[in-house]
Design brief:
This protein is mainly beta and 275 residues long. The chain folds into 2 domains: 31 residues; 223 residues, Lipid/polyisoprenoid-binding, YceI-like (Lipocalin), CATH 2.40.128.110. Helices cover 12% and strands 37% of the residues. It is built from 2 helices and 12 strands; from the N terminus they run αβββββαβββββββ. The longest helix is centred in the N-terminal third of the chain and has 26 residues. The radius of gyration is 28 Å and the shape is elongated. About 13% of the residues have low confidence.
């Protein structure tokens, strides 16, 4: 029987082709461990996202916290001409100098608007995607016991979240900010307050108006909570809709398994009295 030639002195016999298979398997295992470790970190150790807008009126930065009244609109309080030294009659404008906005630091003390939606990520599971922008402009008008006009505009191209890849996709998917950069709201029916709000009083009302998003305008009703402190009015609220309501397709990517059909628009805005 013919024997295989012996290896020259000082050299090892050639190995079989299995080591590359072992190397490949080890590489796959390492990738899986890294991905699994990221998933564990994301679920258990990643800082929580921004909290949802609360049901109470926003805190006005820098203002002394008043002994807030939570009397319902239309209560027994007698109408007055002003709250403290400030008459509420007239025009009020969003003031970007009130508070500040820093997503990375979790600072949302100023005006902002954004979205909140449940998502399912590959290898991680369920989480909540939250994006916000401080670029909110607008005005409102008050006369006696009525909010007579209000309009707001939000620059959606500056929405940021905890994932830059998600932010970039919004230009081409979902709200498609490359084509539809702004969202607007215009009040279409006056809001009767019942009485002139007093300093620190929390007021809850529902605003009926036209919301334009993704180039589609719909009549909506948005619950609002507001408070007057000195010459500043703070307003917050949220509104839930479906992607289909505004003719949007759900964004998709290799990392996203699914998105909830319901999307929440939420905001906090501070207005200062003109003049």
């Amino acid at each position: 029987m013919t024997q295989p030639p012996a290896s020259p002195p000082g050299k090892q016999a050639p190995k079989d082709g299995l080591p590359w298979v072992r190397t490949l398997l080890i590489g796959i295992l390492m990738v899986a461990l890294i991905a699994g470790g990221f998933g564990i970190w994301y679920i258990f150790f990643r800082p929580g996202g921004p909290a949802a807008v609360g049901t109470g009126a926003p805190v006005i930065p820098g203002a002394a916290t008043p002994a807030a009244s939570t009397a319902p609109v239309g209560g027994s309080a007698a109408p007055v001409a002003s709250a403290g030294a400030i008459s509420i009659d007239g025009s009020w404008t969003v003031d970007p100098s009130i508070g500040s906005f820093d997503y990375g630091a979790g600072d949302f003390s100023g005006s902002w608007a954004g979205y909140r939606v449940q998502e399912e990520l590959v290898g991680i599971g369920g989480t909540v995607a939250v994006g916000r922008t401080p670029d909110v402009t607008g005005t409102l008008a008050l006369a006696a016991t009525q909010l007579t006009a209000a309009n707001l505009s939000v620059d959606l191209t500056t929405l940021v979240s905890d994932q830059s890849m998600r932010d970039g996709q919004l230009g081409r998917q979902g709200v498609q900010t490359d084509q539809f950069p702004d969202a607007t709201f215009v009040l279409t029916a006056p809001i009767e307050l019942g009485s002139v709000p007093t300093e620190g009083e929390q007021v809850s009302v529902t605003a009926t108006g036209e919301l334009t998003l993704h180039g589609v305008t719909k009549s909506v009703e948005i619950p609002l909570t507001a408070r007057l402190t000195q010459d500043v009015i703070g307003v917050s609220g949220s509104f839930t809709f479906t992607w289909q309501d505004f003719r949007m397709e759900q964004p998709s990517s290799q990392r996203v398994v699914s998105l909830a059909d319901d999307v929440t628009l939420e905001f906090q805005v501070f207005f200062r009295k003109d003049g």
